[in-house]
Amino acid sequence: MTNSDSDIRRSIESELTWEPSLDEKGIMVKVQEGVVTLGGNVPHYADRWTAEQVAKRVSGVRAIANDIEVVMPKAGERSDTEIANAAVNALKWHFATETCNIKPVVVHGWVKLTGDVKFAYQCNIAEGAVRYLAGVKSVTNDIVVKPAVKIADVKQKIVAAFERQADLDAKQITVNVDNEEVTLKGFVHSWREKDDAARAAWAAPGVATVKNQIQVQY
């Protein structure tokens, strides 16, 4: 059964209220033909990111436009220098990024991560390490993956990973590998399956980029 736009909107609003880590009072939700627009404002960048993840959990969501603004209270403001120092320490104290060549650059609360790592998961960990720092208004992840291994049977490894996961229908997903770039196409039944497919592809050795072009069909 296809969910109506009003059903999807109510479900997202309920899910936002249910999420304990999020103050949803300033968030507005609009839905048109399954495309969700998140608006309003929140006090922290982490809240903006969390709201998007919450919306992805709701059945019937085809796409999301995150227009939520981060309006930080005076008490939560930090100088760029303070944020930069905190970001350096956060990366240094995480075991997965402590030896990586990652440089955070902060301008007006906007953090840009540059540098290179050996594995894709380190990119995600680096972004997560700075996402929840006080004073951060946005995070741009420009870290490059420079794998220490050669691309060999990457496609076979990814397909095998799909087949091991009960929630993924490997027959509905195609995998194309061009050098270190993986492109995923096909169809799944939820945003969670789409994200799971991308995570499985990122975990393959030698993958530097994943283009997730899988479509969600209900």
Write structural notes for this entry:
- This protein is an alpha/beta fold and 218 residues long.
- The protein has 3 domains: 5-70, Histidine-containing Protein, Chain: A (2-Layer Sandwich), CATH 3.30.1340.30; 76-145, Histidine-containing Protein, Chain: A (2-Layer Sandwich); 154-216, GMP Synthetase, Chain A, domain 3, CATH 3.30.300.
- It is built from 6 helices and 12 strands.
- Strands 1, 2, 3 and 4 form a 4-stranded mixed sheet that branches. Strands 5, 6, 7 and 8 form a 4-stranded mixed sheet that branches. Strands 9, 10, 11 and 12 form a 4-stranded mixed sheet that branches.
- The chain is flat.
- The chain starts with a helix and ends with a strand.
- The mean pLDDT is 90.
Brief synopsis:
This protein folds into three domains: 5-70, Histidine-containing Protein, Chain: A (2-Layer Sandwich), CATH 3.30.1340; 76-145, 2-Layer Sandwich (Histidine-containing Protein, Chain: A); 154-216, Fe-S cluster assembly (FSCA) (GMP Synthetase, Chain A, domain 3, 2-Layer Sandwich), CATH 3.30.300.130.
